[in-house]
Amino acid sequence: MRVLFVCSAGMSSAIVVNALKKEAEKQGVAVEVKAVSTQEFGEEVKNGWDVAMVAPQVRHRFNQLKQEADGASVPCELIPPQGYTPLGGPILLKKVKEMTT
Amino acid sequence: MNGFIDFLDRRLSGPIARIAEQRHLRAIRDGVISALPFIIVGSFFLIIAFPPFPEDWAISLWAKENVAKILIPYRMTMFIMSLYIAFGVGYNLAKSYKIDPLAGAQISVMALLMTIAPKAIPDVGFVLPMGNLGGQGLFVTMLVTIIAVEILRFCKQRNLTIRLPEQVPPSLLRSFEALIPIAIVLLLMTLVTVVFNLDLHALIGKAVAPLVTAGDSIFGVLIPVFLITFFWAFGIHGVSIVGTIARPLWEVYLGNNAEAVASGQATLPHIAPETFYQWFIWIGGSGATMGLVLCMLLFAKSRYSKTLGKTVVTPSIFNINEPVIFGIPIVLNPIMVIPFVIVPLITATLSYYVTVLGFVNPTYIKVPWTLPAPIGAYLSTGGDWRAIILVVVNILISFLIYLPFFKMYDNRLVEQENEENSVETTV
Predict the structure, then answer these.
(1) A2: which residues sit within 8 A by CB, 6+ positions away?
(2) Where are the domains of chain B?
(3) pTM of the entire predicted model
């Protein structure tokens, strides 16, 4: 499963990415995760991702990001704030699973 | 309480956030941001030219003798930042209209260059006065860039292009497409600068002078500081919104300060470039949460705070604090939001007056925002060790104010954890 994260600079989501990776490993799910900034998102989302997840603090740009994801037919949703922490792995993985089924 | 928070989110922070997403503002923001690496690398040569060492050291003497040469990389980057920004804004605005971004970038650079008139110097040839391509020229840059790209878009929409026979290859077509808008923009700018002999930079400079003064006052600092934490309190990236409006002003201050240093002036004109906020206020990230992280490391009782404290300390040192803001969480947390808003207002006021009174040098060098605050503050002030003391004091203030609120909140977590435990054991 290929998951693309987007936040303001691609920095904070890098931390959350690790939380998701760890949880996926624990549950034996193979994931590839990458974090990008809102500026990079439009180009990156075209590269065959299964889901796109938008960090809660850039939700004011969600509509624009969603449009870009729709253009590439990638399901795109907001990350729930409770999941956007280093301890939020289980919430994130659950969300990703919901989005891909 | 929840109703009130909900009201603020829907009626206030939401709509303002959407304004910041307006097309032109967004293009300006992304355009300015695209130029930051050039400003960061360029400003570093200011440190080399004015090294933070005693004046009689060999390196200081060498720098003093060669200052003009050492500053050439600075002159070609940060000193003419408006040129890079014009390219970036034009590119992003055109891209948002889905027209050729390169054409948008190029037409913008042309429009900006047309606002300054070259001078003929004997034996040298034509020379461009560079001053107005720097921070000073940023307002004119935004204005002419938007006009130029809007003309480009208008011509495209109305199909005002030169039609070529079908056998012309498509790559050639693209370069002909821009002919008419370029001609219009060039003509317009010639009218302004050459025929009417208007100095746009002087005109706009006068018009925005009150704004430039206001943004550098104590309220000009406290208002954005408050707004940034206010947005974060709802979980919205405050700097990305407030910065959309304020960043051009911040870069003007930085450019002016750097230029004052480069030209050997003793006092710097501005207190509050973005670097001031970054290194003295947002220590550990927005909301100055470094102190809060220390609270967690030293005083956490609940299992949750203990674990979180350990995981967030490293990113916090590098000023990344989303894990803190969403982890604790501070977002929509009526207890933790109070210090989150108060701490930066206090450290901002202290840092402002300490700088005004000359106890710490104003900042004029841009370094990456992910440096630990003491290092960033030291470099950004051109190597003023007193800046490090101010950072440490601000962390202490942050720690002391966060502490009672954190303890109150942490006790609640302990109670919750105990309840959960007792439920588990009875089940």
Answers:
(1) A31, A32, A33, A48, A49, A50, A51
(2) 24-207, 224-426
(3) 0.83
